[in-house]
Amino acid sequence: MLHYAFFSFFLLLLLPFSRQYLKLAEFHFPQNMKGRSFMFMSVLLCATFHVSFSIIDGLVANGNFELGPKPSELKGTVVVGGSDSIPEWKISGFVEYIKSGQKQGDMLLVVPEGAYAVRLGNEASIMQRISVMKGMYYSITFMVARTCAQEERLNISVTPDWGVIPIQTLYTSSGWDPIAFGFKAESATVELLIHNPGKEEDPACGPLIDSVAIRTLFPPKATNKNIIKNGDFEEGPYIFPNSSWGVIIPPNIEDDHSPLPGWMVESLKAVKYIDSDHFSVPQGKRAVELIAGKESAIAQVVRTIPGKTYVLSFSVGDASNSCEGSMIVEAFAGKDTIKVPYESKGKGGYKRAALKFVAVGIRTRIMFLSTFYTMRSDDFSSLCGPVIDDVKLVSLRKP
Ligand SMILES: *[C@@H]1O[C@H](CO)[C@@H](O)[C@H](O)[C@H]1NC(C)=O
Ligand SMILES: *[C@@H]1O[C@H](CO)[C@@H](O)[C@H](O)[C@H]1NC(C)=O
């Protein structure tokens, strides 16, 4: 008890200097001021009196696996010391502890952050218990790389939410993809589980994992100034400050627990979430890059009044990432559609576009996709595409 009291006091001292405190203090959604301030107060209270770590916007405990097994718990790279061998994690099955620079066949394994990562063999898993706030939304971002030619998959879950993510090296040429997963906390402590459901012949085949981070989400609400939720994409998953790859938002996630609040990725392939620290972004700090042509689309279903006229407006641009050429963004509002051409020189910039439509139902599906596939001119193994941002939907009083 004394311990806790002391620690709370320590946290209280520390709080004003923490990054999250600063982040929470800068409200960029004036329309949500009330909700946000309330959230801020409760997060603050929670942090002070319940010693919750959930407010920390960054790596989970030993999320970069720099703390590893004792030498006696390792046989080569294989962890043999039991489920508690890797500090802060519970492991199960064939788990390897990989040092950066290690060779596998003729492949050199490079670790994105620090010097160590883990590899999950067939049916292996890593799990961590995380203190959160019941009822709040969170996003997990983690780095993943595949190591063998086989199709590899990962099942990431925070019960009852889970998602099976196919691991491809398609998106980033470094071989490591930062991937996002969203969940709603059903209790004050949740179990974050990453499991490789694979059954490969070679048990050493299986994805590498590094840099597991968490971010609290504050899902924005629709307002009368914008019926689209999170139209500026400012609310979304944690982006590693040192990674210039953005974050992959995989397809087929339930929209109410999306790591990109309000939005769902409906198509076969992912979209990329980018930030202004590493990319050119039309508005604010964050935006979405449509990286996989017609195979990747983001959508939101909004409430509409049949017969009423609406205007959907948005920015189309490029991320200043050497993604050059003629691009087209297709925007849909129910059955109405507009094609917006954009000539990209790969150096940043954007234009506005608008689609006027009359709603036919009480719900209208708003969707964006890119007509073409594009490759970076400096890196032919990296997919890229047009950026969309600042999506607004308003109803017209006088059509
Ligand atoms: C993924 O993991 C969760 C939690 O363990 C489980 O409930 C779910 O069935 C798994 N999904 C698949 C497709 O294996
Ligand atoms: C980010 O990069 C800087 C400079 O290279 C380094 O000092 C810092 O530890 C890195 N942070 C993370 C989280 O990797």
TrEMBL record:
Sequence intervals crossing the membrane: none
Lineage, top ranks: Eukaryota, Viridiplantae, Streptophyta, Embryophyta, Tracheophyta
Entry's Gene Ontology cellular component terms: plant-type cell wall
Name of the molecule in the record: DUF642 domain-containing protein
Record key words, sorted: Cell wall, Glycoprotein, Secreted, Signal
Database matches in SUPFAM superfamilies: Galactose-binding domain-like
PANTHER family to which the protein is assigned, alphabetical: OS02G0205200 PROTEIN, OS02G0527500 PROTEIN-RELATED
Pfam families recorded: DUF642
Organism, as annotated: Psophocarpus tetragonolobus
